[in-house]
């Protein structure tokens, strides 16, 4: 139990460090072609925060909200709303926010941090999904039909 809590705290700490670095690091390795797109980057970042906030609200309404990868006691598996489209919409929103921040900063460093956050969220989500599969017998079926971060694009022909 103690080991699991320490592991959870480690995941959350790394996440907070990466998010803070994206927000607070000065631009380094200016990408001049992105400078005109800075307002678009801010708009994309805002959209990501809205998505993440809506997903967080949905978790809170279902009493499943926790920053830790381990599911809460009494948590329910959410498969409706945003969770019908993707398994981790909070992470999706934070990734969209991070991309927006990288564009707004027009900084190579921020794109590196975005890449690190992407890799981190894939690892954290995989860990979290193992725990969810242990807790919810129907999680594997849900995971098989629902993308991890972004819905599949349907091309109309």
What key attributes describe this structure?
mainly alpha; 6 helices
Number of helices: 6
Q: How many structural domains does the protein architecture include?
A: 1
Assign an overall shape. globular
Task: Kindly name the structural category.
Answer: mainly alpha
Runs with pLDDT <50, length 5+? none
Radius of gyration equals 17 Å
Strand content: under 5%
The helix content is 55-70%
Topology:
Layout: H1 2-24, H2 38-61, H3 82-85, H4 89-105, H5 108-135, H6 139-145
What does this structure look like?
The structure is a single chain. The chain is mainly alpha-helical and 157 residues long. The chain has one domain. 66% of the residues lie in helices and 0% in strands. The protein is built from six helices and no strands. It has helices spanning 2-24, 38-61, 82-85, 89-105, 108-135, 139-145. Helix 1 runs antiparallel to helix 5 (108-135), helix 2 (38-61) packs antiparallel against helix 4 (89-105) and helix 4 packs antiparallel against helix 5 (108-135). The longest helix is centred in the C-terminal third of the chain and has 28 residues, at 108-135. The chain is globular, with a radius of gyration of 17 Å. The mean pLDDT is 92.
């Amino acid at each position: 139990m103690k080991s699991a809590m320490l592991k959870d705290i480690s995941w959350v700490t790394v996440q907070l460090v990466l998010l803070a670095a994206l927000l607070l690091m000065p631009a380094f390795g200016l990408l001049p072609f992105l400078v005109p797109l800075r307002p678009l980057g801010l708009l994309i970042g805002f959209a990501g925060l809205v998505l993440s906030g809506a997903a967080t609200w949905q978790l809170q309404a279902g009493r499943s909200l926790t920053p830790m990868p381990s599911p809460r006691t009494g948590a329910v598996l959410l498969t409706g709303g945003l969770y019908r489209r993707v398994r981790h919409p909070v992470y999706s929103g934070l990734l969209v926010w991070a991309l927006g921040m990288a564009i707004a900063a027009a900084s190579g460093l921020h794109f590196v941090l975005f890449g690190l956050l992407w890799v981190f969220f894939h690892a954290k989500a995989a860990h979290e999904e193992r725990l969810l599969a242990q807790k919810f017998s129907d999680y594997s079926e849900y995971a098989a039909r629902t993308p991890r971060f972004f819905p599949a694009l349907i091309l109309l022909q």
